[in-house]
Write a structure and sequence with these properties.
The chain has 2 helices and 6 strands. By secondary structure, it is α+β, with helices and mostly antiparallel strands.
């Protein structure tokens, strides 16, 4: 069951999804399939991007995805997403995934990713998005980091 909230939290995340890890989400070792986590990351990121753009969006890229701790059957997975940058038609979204032991309440960072989405019009063509304007020092720092990641993505595309 997915639960999503509208309000931006104190850390600037506009999406909080909560999932319970069930047997069908896990492998023979009782840990979650990476593809399930990637799907939840993409959904949370897309919701953040759509809320920002007020348009449908498509996923363009994910920078990297490293699994830090195993997420186990019975854990609660907290997936948070926020826009960190916008260009003409694209947005970068930061997604943080935490695994919570539902019994003890202990929460650990499970993974962290940056995704790029493009807003599309009714024909599926790229369409302009609002300018992202940092409001706090933390948002400004994330925005500057996003600019550097964008440069790196563009350089990587040129070299492939």
């Amino acid at each position: 069951m997915t639960q999503s909230h509208n309000a931006t939290d104190a850390d600037g995340f506009s999406v909080l999804m909560t999932e319970l890890v069930l047997p069908q989400h896990t492998n023979a070792l009782g840990t979650i399939f990476g593809g399930v986590v990637m799907g939840w990351i993409d959904v949370a990121g897309a919701i953040a991007a759509m809320r920002f753009a007020r348009r449908p969006v498509v996923t363009v890229s994910i920078d990297y995805l490293h699994f830090i701790v195993p997420i186990k059957k019975g854990n609660t997975v907290l997936t948070r997403a926020r826009v960190t940058y916008s260009g003409k038609t694209s947005m970068e979204v930061e997604v943080l995934v935490e695994a919570e032991n539902s019994i003890t309440g202990v929460t650990k960072k499970a993974t962290h990713a940056y995704l790029t989405y493009v807003a599309v019009d009714d024909n599926g063509d790229p369409t302009p998005v609002p300018a992202f304007k940092p409001k706090t020092k933390e948002e400004e720092a994330r925005y500057q980091g996003a600019l550097e990641r964008k440069r790196n993505r563009l350089n990587t595309q040129k070299n492939t």
